[in-house]
Specification:
Blueprint: H1 4-36, H2 43-49, H3 52-58, E1 78-82, E2 88-91, E3 95-96, E4 104-105, E5 113-118, E6 125-130, E7 136-141, E8 151-154, E9 159-163
Antiparallel strand pairs: 1-2, 1-9, 3-4, 4-8, 5-6, 6-7, 7-8
Length: 164
């Protein structure tokens, strides 16, 4: 039987862990705000520019629910741009259906994205972000198709589509 004291201690430890996760995400965003990127805006400016969902994903490293983006099953010819700064990121020719519920690409456009190591949630993943504004896009995995073998699993809300 779990004692009341054990429950309180366990809940406190979980809350502390979540707090540290939040601090690490805020620290990462603070580093981005110090000029690492070409486009640097205040939190208020980003909130004015983006929808609440875009802000959550691009600026707070959130993830949209799988199978909710209209861009997941979108295959028209054109380019996918960063929803934060309009930088072209992915060509429709590199898009494929990964079955994961998020838009997936086997490569980005040259000099469009940056990467970093994401150790959140007890995993080690390669995070990708817009190289110009630092907006969080998603993650890159090693289970994609040829010719790269990569799967850029991207939040659709982080993208806008521009037809060819």
């Amino acid at each position: 039987m779990i004692s009341r004291r054990s429950m309180i201690l366990g809940a406190s430890a979980a809350a502390a862990g979540l707090g540290l996760f939040g601090l690490s995400q805020r620290f990462a965003m603070a580093q981005h705000a110090e000029g690492e990127f070409e486009i640097v805006l205040s939190e208020a400016e980003w909130r004015e520019r983006l929808t609440p969902e875009q802000f959550y994903v691009l600026r707070e490293h959130g993830t949209e629910r799988a199978f909710t983006s209209p861009l997941d099953k979108h295959y028209e010819a054109g380019l996918y741009h960063c929803a934060g700064c309009d930088l072209p990121l992915y060509a429709s020719e590199a898009k494929y259906d990964s079955g994961t519920g998020w838009p997936s690409f086997w490569e980005s456009l040259p000099d469009a994205i940056g990467t970093s190591t994401d150790t959140s949630f007890g995993m080690v993943r390669t995070e990708c972000h817009c190289r110009r504004c630092g907006g969080h896009l998603g993650h890159i995995f090693d289970d994609g198709p040829e010719p790269t073998g990569k799967r850029h699993c991207i939040n659709g809300v982080a993208l806008t589509f521009v037809a060819a």
